[in-house]
Design a protein that fits this description.
- There is one protein chain.
- This protein is of the alpha/beta class and about 325 residues long.
- The chain folds into three domains: about 80 residues, Arc Repressor Mutant, subunit A; about 100 residues, D-Maltodextrin-Binding Protein, domain 2; about 100 residues, Periplasmic binding protein-like II (D-Maltodextrin-Binding Protein, domain 2).
- Helix content is about 45%, strand content about 20%.
- The chain is built from ten helices and ten strands.
- Helix 1 crosses helix 4 and helix 2 crosses helix 3.
- It is rod-shaped and about 100 Å long.
């Protein structure tokens, strides 16, 4: 590559050529008028061509100056755009997770992250396909499973997974009772891609009494949950995905029973990017949000236990 002229001289020339005035150019780039004039003279010496005609009332570009100005302005614009793009990319963060987790857990909480980190632009990819972190633009992922998730990937736990049976309160209070597990045989079972009904019924000792194959099937857990909310049947889900629906009374939990899975939710990201400020901010925020939910669930569980004891022993009030 041939030797380039000083960048400061090019900036001074470009500003002076746009304004045809050394004083206005100096004000724009934050230097003195004399400094701009000197930078332009040095550039003319390097190039061996006069770029301006100095007139009593300002400047005029020479023929060579006009040709050079067009190319320099284009080159500086390319550099400015490249710099802006890189700076913007450095402050953006792409999160990958499943559609159900995105819609039921992440999106309702995401505003608290953007409020805390307004300079980080968050992009959410909701897809069943797992990110490889190689060429797909993903910075951090939320995965349901158990580590290791792949070579060179770090994983931090968010929360364990307990599976509950849930339905609309209107269904639970209908003429066909839902008081005990055997009542399931008179109701519609809603299935998702995890296909946990056989294991759930076996744990309830109802594996031989309730047909685990019956009922509609959905490709995503969120769809089965929405079907349950609308009163179409009974779904299996983790508390993390239906916490807000339970609190709002759109769903109720059945049988006071949970199937504990060996899988959990994890924050996953490339090990060599552990110290990235944006990844660290999102990782810590996710872990904090998960801990808030776990603490709230534990408090609610203690409250339910206390309520049952009070109901069973009214004389102790």
């Amino acid at each position: 590559m041939s030797r380039l002229p000083p960048l400061n001289a090019l900036r001074a020339f470009e500003a002076a050529a746009r304004h045809l005035n050394f004083r206005v150019a100096a004000e724009e780039i934050g230097v003195t008028q004399g400094a701009v004039a000197q930078q332009v003279r040095n550039l003319e010496d390097v190039l061996g061509h006069q770029l301006f005609d100095r007139l009593p009332r300002g400047l005029a570009l020479t023929a060579n100056g006009s040709i050079y100005f067009s190319s320099v302005q284009r080159a500086l614009t390319i550099i400015a755009n490249a710099t802006e793009t890189l700076a913007h990319r450095a402050s953006s963060l792409t999160v990958s997770t499943t559609p159900s987790f995105a819609s039921k857990w992440l999106i309702p909480r995401l505003a608290t992250f953007t409020d805390a980190y307004p300079s980080i632009e968050v992009r959410v990819i909701a897809d069943q396909q797992l990110s490889t972190f190689r060429g797909d633009g993903v910075d951090i992922a939320i995965r349901h499973g158990k580590p290791p998730f792949g070579k060179g990937l770090a994983a931090d736990p968010l929360f364990p997974v307990d599976i509950y049976a849930v339905c609309s309160p209107s269904l639970a209070d209908a003429r066909r009772p839902l008081k005990k597990p055997s009542d399931l045989k008179r109701h519609v079972l809603l299935h998702d891609s995890h296909n946990l009904w056989p294991e759930f019924l076996e744990a309830l000792n109802e594996g031989g009494h309730v047909d685990a194959s019956k009922g509609p099937r959905f490709s995503q857990s969120a769809l089965a949950i929405d079907a349950a909310i609308s009163g179409q049947g009974i779904a299996l889900t983790s508390e993390q995905l239906v916490e807000r629906d339970l609190a709002a009374g759109r769903l109720c939990r059945l049988f006071n029973f949970a199937l504990h899975l060996s899988l959990g939710y994890y924050v996953v990201y490339p090990e060599d990017r552990r110290d990235s400020e944006t990844i660290r901010a999102m990782r810590d925020w996710l872990i904090t949000q998960a801990q808030y939910q776990l603490n709230a669930a534990a408090t609610a569980k203690r409250s339910r236990r206390g309520s049952r004891k009070t109901t069973a022993n009214p004389d102790k009030l």
